[in-house]
Amino acid sequence: MAYKYLVTAILLLAALVISAACRTGPAATPTPPVVYSAPQLEYRLISNFGGVFYCDPDLYPVAREGQELANALEQFPIIRANAAELSAILEHLGLPDKAEYTDEEKLLIYREHKKLTYGVELTASGDIYDFTLRVGEVQGYRISGTITPSGTITVLKQETSFNTCPICLAMGTLIDTPSGPVPAEELSRGMAVWSVDDSGKRVAATVVETAVTPVPPSFQLVTVRLSDGRAVTASPGHPAAEGRLLGDYRVGDSLDGALVIAVERASYENEATYDLLPSGTTGLYWANGILLRSTLTDSPSPHQ
Length: 304
Hints:
alpha+beta
């Protein structure tokens, strides 16, 4: 009798094993990790850090009515040619991939393109990407680190950063002083410089304030060249003596008594731009021999 029960138990156990094997089937194939495109990774960084700071070229140094839309329509074929970026932007905006887009949709796509282009610096480094971005306006942060193709973010450095759009002079710009030209970055409070008084007469003044403004990645300066050989390089938003922004000058215009023969824009390789405020009421000084107005004063120029 015991033998009968033992055989029955063995048969039941075998049946259970066979049934379990039938239900299990072949071993499951591991799911491969998700791999994102570079623009998708940029969006993940922007989302992770709650937005990014950048200088919008259509709004800085001054916004002009209709200019952003005009640039959006002009740039759209170029944006569309970058399939990875366009796909990421359409996914972010919830727009379908279609043959034609309205002008309003092109403007939305262009704005996202600017955010990705100017807001995040992403560089391939082996099997991962290095990134640098800035968050917060004025007193914010500059963050750098790595991100894997699957989207894992590692912050390597976070430092305070003065996040603003530069409107100052390039490093090495020579400021006229009674002792001779001095590079803008070497000036400090109390030093003597040449300025102009309310009557337009050149007078000796003292530096009452200086400014050093960090420059974001991909920022461009403008170089204005004059017919008499003078030239100055500064942020497009830096004002000339009469108050007109250097970025607004065109070939054939007049600047400080000479004709503009070239206006060139190029990326700036240094980390900061510089400015100074001379004592007196005008805020004027000579930079590379060209009379300019300080960005550190709200006083109107006598030449306006």
